[in-house]
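I am writing to request your help with a piece of structural work I have in hand. What I wish to show you is a protein chain and, alongside it, a tokenised description of its three-dimensional fold. Could you please explain, in whatever detail you think fit, how the structure tokens follow from the sequence? You will find the record immediately after this paragraph.
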Amino acid sequence: MKPIDTFSYELGAADCFCEMVRAGVKRLALAHPCDSPQERDQYLPYFEELCRKYGVKLYVEDEAFLTDLFPLSLNQGKYNALFYQEGSALQEYLALKGEKKAALAQGTYGQARRDIAWRFGKLLSYTDEGIQRLLESNTEKE
């Protein structure tokens, strides 16, 4: 079997995510997280081309959104790119991040964390069962 380099694999995944966003299967999609902005930025010209190809938009994320939906080690200190078609999807994402930040500042994140993670999963167009499975299987929470 011919080996596939990581860059090409992750770019192929981004292509698939852009196609899913364009088709309305996903409202918001995340590229693979990168360890540094420099690593992520090498993908950006390709991501921009994919966005033109599929008619979707790109948001460059420098502050990872950490929720109980995904293991902490997957996103903590990472850099990402998001794909979306409707501005409302990006606004909802940014509002969720703001809601978490406010809850942390007010000391109420303990009560809100499951709801925030759940709504993030819905924004990513996951099923209720899929969200439940991710939340239950995540052993690396903040």
